[in-house]
Design a protein that fits this description.
The complex is a heterodimer. Chain A is an all-alpha fold. In chain A, 73% of the residues lie in helices and 1% in strands. A two-stranded antiparallel ribbon of chain A has the order 1-2. In chain A, helix 3 runs antiparallel to helix 10 and helix 4 packs antiparallel against helix 7. Chain A is globular, with a radius of gyration of 27 Å. Chain B has 18 helices and 14 strands. The radius of gyration of chain B is 24 Å and the shape is globular. Classes of the chains: A mainly alpha, B alpha+beta.
């Protein structure tokens, strides 16, 4: 860069300090504070008593917390399939030559993700309503009155029911991300595959998916992170009920912290959520990497690693030998 | 240069936005320098205050209207004092005030919920108001029973605020029940079950209830039905934590069992009671889809405002919970109290003049001006007694006044006492219990475990 237009280092640092300060203030400081308070018995107010690992012992034995974790895992699994899976199919459809008004499809697809989660919760609350809800109205209209249910009071299916609004809301969001990735694939590659006789499914499986692997990884990471901290629309629809049937970790943390005024244990739950979310994200990335890389690529990667290892070893030996030689001289 | 200026402005705007964001979403109403008669207080400056009497709330709720009116009067009478009010909806208020208490950053004056009294007083967050209550100009008019939720070790920590309202009332349509063969609301659950056949036949819910919020079944049902089984001493012992009562006592478990039977084994209630909010459930009463509705005084205010001028307004009456067949301590119980009190941050005591101003405000907001206002306008009662002509009100208001203050035996509202950690467990598990997914004994045992943890056992 020309010296005359390059700002001084101090100016660059001054600009950069704003996002860094923002990050420290909004992410890092609360996290460290939560970790600190998780070692205290703190029932609100200025009195805090250090209790070592008692909160963590309680957390390991807290059935409700682990049930909530399972609910989060269920949400993650359902939403990866529902949000990213359906978004991928929609991307292929929107990208198809046969599809008209692509812009309209993109806009309307993205629209639900611009609505606040609380409003989404209320919309679906109305859909699931026992007396005036759309779902029971449809069942009645098709003569299946016997299938009518108080949907949000069904512990067996409640997690699936609260997942549906989440899926509906974010399909468009992932669609836009995947669409940008798919758009960057050269049309020549797809056309030559078509000429070679590859079907649509084969093109999607063997060409599109491997080429957007990194974007998919980002989508999966976002999806997991989003669903590990799911709270708002479930809170609106069920408050975690009936009982603990739709309780998720963030809501449990909120309940413990504010309804039960147990801020020390609530902080411990927050730390638990953070650690578990990291573990799930890390695990999923390993799995995804494994499944999106075929055997040939894996062998090739192994071979390259081996070559690199041998090269480094050879350099080390050569250096050692040179050192020994010079010493002899 | 222009670019530099623009950059600097944007940076300032960004930081300002961050700071404003950190201040929370509360609507902060700052009183301007009110004109009017100067107050007699020595203090001059700011007093921060937080409460939940929003303007929307005050439109249908006499207590909130009276509270806001008295705040406005006090501000006008004390132009040297600027009252910085933070007004939130009740649900948000509970979360916000708990957060501020945790940060030891309570406003100067705020509303203390009964169940937080012990914990906050023990941590020195709230100022001891015992002497000021004794020396208050209104002390001879105070109903001292209302102080119980704010009493810790014999000391008082708040002036009971707003209006004494019932938490459990059966609101019913007299005309509909007459058609079912009952001139008044049945006195026993067996009779209600008999009426259920008629209402089922015409496609109307016998009783409406909403428990999506989970607290409703406790505050508006078990907290009253429980007394039919345990009598009054049991809950006094629970409050005292003296070991003479426990949630696993057979009487309390029997109350839970009866609750489960009524909600799960009979068709008395709307099928979706666990998925419906109390606001939605009361609409079903208003629209005639339920013949009766079990609720608290806040719902009655809304029903009154909504039905006024209709035929249903004239046929809406009030009753206590019917008697359970195996309840041995039955009386016409209705749980009533003042769940919140005006409290003062203990730190205010560092400035005696400011403390005097805060006490003056607390006394004014719970004194005769407030009681007279809500009495004369709404026929409601507060911490102070008031004298008004009940016959000047319409039948609906008179009936509800008599229900609340004259005809029935008052009992305590469970969740005005003890601790949120106990009620959170009971409320959540009762939701499963009334679905038939958890037995009453387990719910009682889990609640007792939370109670033991609270007592530090």
């Amino acid at each position: 860069m020309l010296k005359s237009i390059r700002p001084k280092n101090s100016v660059i640092a001054a600009y950069l300090i704003i996002p860094v300060a923002l990050y420290i203030f909004t992410v890092f400081a609360p996290l460290v504070a939560a970790l600190f308070y998780s070692f205290f018995e703190w029932k609100g107010g200025p009195t805090k008593t250090f209790n070592g690992l008692t909160n963590y012992t309680q957390l390991f034995n807290d059935e409700t917390f682990w049930t909530s974790f399972q609910h989060n895992l269920f949400l993650v699994a359902v939403c990866i399939v529902g949000q990213i899976g359906i978004a991928f199919i929609m991307v292929l459809l929107v990208n198809s030559k046969l599809t008209k008004w692509k812009g309209i499809h993109r806009t309307f697809g993205f629209f639900p993700s611009t609505i606040s989660a609380v409003c989404i919760g209320y919309i679906w609350l109305m859909i699931y309503d026992y007396n005036k809800g759309l779902l029971n109205w449809i069942l009645e209209a098709v003569g299946r009155e016997d299938a009518k249910k108080v949907w949000l009071n069904e512990p067996g299916i409640i997690m699936l029911l609260v997942s549906i609004p989440l899926i509906w809301q974010y399909i468009g969001y992932y669609m836009v991300i995947l669409l940008s990735a798919v758009s960057s694939i050269s049309t020549e590659v797809l056309e030559s595959a078509e000429i070679d006789g590859a079907t649509g499914i084969q093109r999607a499986r063997y060409i599109v998916l491997p080429l957007i692997k990194n974007t998919l990884l980002v989508c999966v990471t976002l999806c997991i992170a989003g669903n590990m901290k799911a709270f708002d629309n479930i809170y609106v629809m069920t408050k975690g009920g009936p009982g603990y049937s739709s309780m998720v970790m963030a809501m449990y943390g909120y309940k413990v912290s504010f309804e039960q005024s147990n801020l020390g244990y609530g902080s411990c739950i927050s730390v638990g959520i953070f650690v578990l979310a990291l573990a799930v994200i890390g695990g999923s990335q390993l799995l995804l990497n494994y499944f999106t890389t075929d055997k040939y690529d894996r062998d090739e990667q192994k071979r390259l690693k081996q070559i690199e290892k041998e090269r480094k070893q050879a350099i080390r030996l050569r250096a050692k030998a040179a050192k020994g030689g010079s010493a002899n001289v | 240069m222009k670019k530099k200026l623009l950059s600097a402005l944007l940076s300032v705007a960004m930081v300002a936005t961050m700071l404003v964001g950190c201040g929370g979403g509360a609507a902060t109403e700052t009183a301007g320098e009110a004109s009017g008669e100067a107050g007699s207080l020595a203090y001059s400056g700011n007093i921060s205050m937080m409460h939940f009497s929003t303007s929307e709330e005050s439109e249908g709720n006499g207590g909130s209207d009276g509270f806001r009116t008295c705040i406005a009067n006090w501000k006008e009478a004390n132009p040297n004092i600027t009252l910085d009010e933070t007004v939130l909806a009740n649900g948000d208020y509970k979360t916000q005030i708990a957060t501020m208490a945790a940060a030891d950053d309570l406003p100067d004056v705020f509303l203390l919920q009964g169940m937080n009294s012990i914990s906050w007083a023990e941590q020195g967050l709230v100022y001891d108001l015992t002497d000021s209550i004794a020396s208050s100009p209104y002390s001879s008019l105070y109903n001292m029973d209302y102080l119980v939720p704010f009493t810790v070790d014999g000391k008082y920590y708040a002036y009971p605020a707003l209006t004494g309202g019932t938490c459990t009332v059966v609101v019913y349509d007299e005309a509909m029940w007459k058609e079912a063969g009952f001139d008044t609301f049945p006195a026993t659950w067996a009779e209600v079950e008999a009426a259920d056949e008629y209402f089922d036949g015409i496609g109307v819910d016998t009783l409406g209830f909403g428990n999506q919020g989970q607290w409703n079944l406790n505050s508006c049902f078990v907290s009253c039905l429980g007394y039919q089984y345990t009598g009054t001493q049991w809950f006094s012992d629970i409050i005292a934590g003296n070991g003479n009562a426990s949630f696993t006592d057979p009487e309390f478990v029997a109350a839970l069992a009866e609750t489960q039977r009524l909600f799960h084994d009979t068709d008395l209630f709307n099928e979706d009671f666990n998925a419906l909010t109390n606001e939605d459930a009361r609409e079903r009463y208003i629209s005639g889809e339920a013949a009766a509705y079990i609720c608290g005084n806040w719902d009655v205010s809304y029903i009154q405002a909504t039905l006024e001028g209709t035929d249903k307004y004239n046929t809406t009456k009030f009753a206590v919970l019917p008697q359970a067949a195996d309840a041995t301590k039955y009386e016409k119980f209705q749980n009533i109290g003042l769940g919140y009190g005006v409290a003062i941050n203990a730190k205010v005591a560092e400035d005696p003049d400011k403390l005097a101003a805060c006490i003056d405000l607390a006394q004014y907001l719970t004194g005769t001006e407030f009681s007279n206002y809500v009495g004369e306008k709404y026929a409601l009662g507060g911490f102070c007694g008031s004298d008004f002509d009940l016959s000047a009100f319409d039948q609906f208001t008179q009936d509800f006044y008599n229900f609340s203050y004259v005809d029935n035996k008052g009992c305590e509202i469970y969740d005005s006492y003890v601790d949120g950690s106990v009620w959170s467990v009971l409320n959540t598990e009762m939701q499963e219990m009334v679905n038939g997914d958890k037995d009453p004994a387990t719910v009682a045992a889990d609640t007792q475990a939370a109670y033991d943890a609270y007592l530090g056992k």
